[in-house]
Automatic annotation (TrEMBL):
PANTHER family: 4-CARBOXYMUCONOLACTONE DECARBOXYLASE FAMILY PROTEIN (AFU_ORTHOLOGUE AFUA_6G11590), CARBOXYMUCONOLACTONE DECARBOXYLASE-LIKE DOMAIN-CONTAINING PROTEIN. It comes from the Bacteria. It comes from Actinomadura verrucosospora. This is Carboxymuconolactone decarboxylase. It holds the Pfam family CMD.
């Protein structure tokens, strides 16, 4: 379940039954399985088609390394209190080389773990965008020393995208596939 909000825990919109899937949703489900994030957002076919292309570009076709991408997504999932996003990206984070201890540390203040400078700048970017909706000049300078302009744009867009996804998952009360 996403976000511990008092009140009813049932999904606000049930996942779309398979008999009602369009070609885009069928193709996505054939690749990923019938994940509730997709079968719920698939209730708006035109929007889903555009969104899935953008999300796929960020997740699977981006310029950022897997570790940087998953650090940014996992920190955002934590900051937005989205258990669905956290749960689904946890395995991707492990595959990207994060350890169990690092994944646990993503829920802590950044100073409570010995992050490398590279990891810390990505996590700081996620925190600053969450808190301020922008980056400080110091963080921008640190990121600019490491990333080119395309990666900088992608990092900011990635973090913003996963904020949006967390908002949708939380507001729609999308349940994990086990119904939690």
């Amino acid at each position: 379940m996403c976000a511990d909000i008092p009140g009813e825990r049932a999904p606000r919109l049930a996942p779309l039954p398979e008999a009602e899937w369009d070609g885009t949703l069928r193709a996505v489900a054939a690749t990923t399985g019938p994940l509730n994030v997709f079968t719920t957002l698939g209730r708006h076919p035109r929007l889903f088609e555009k969104w899935i292309g953008f999300g796929t570009a960020l997740l699977m076709k981006g310029l950022l390394g897997d570790r940087d991408r998953e650090l940014a997504i996992m920190r955002t999932a934590h900051l937005r209190d989205c258990a669905y996003e956290w749960g689904h990206h946890r395995r991707l984070a492990l595959a990207a080389g994060l350890s169990e201890a690092e994944i646990a540390a993503l829920r802590l203040p950044l100073d409570d773990h010995g992050w490398s400078d590279d990891d810390l700048m990505v996590l700081t970017a996620a925190d600053e965008l969450d808190e301020r909706s922008t980056l400080t000049d110091a963080t921008w300078a640190a990121l600019s020393a490491r990333f080119g302009e395309r990666e900088l744009i992608e990092l900011v867009m990635l973090i913003g995208h996963y904020h949006m996804v967390a908002f949708a998952l939380n507001a729609l009360r999308v349940q994990d596939e086990e119904g939690h």
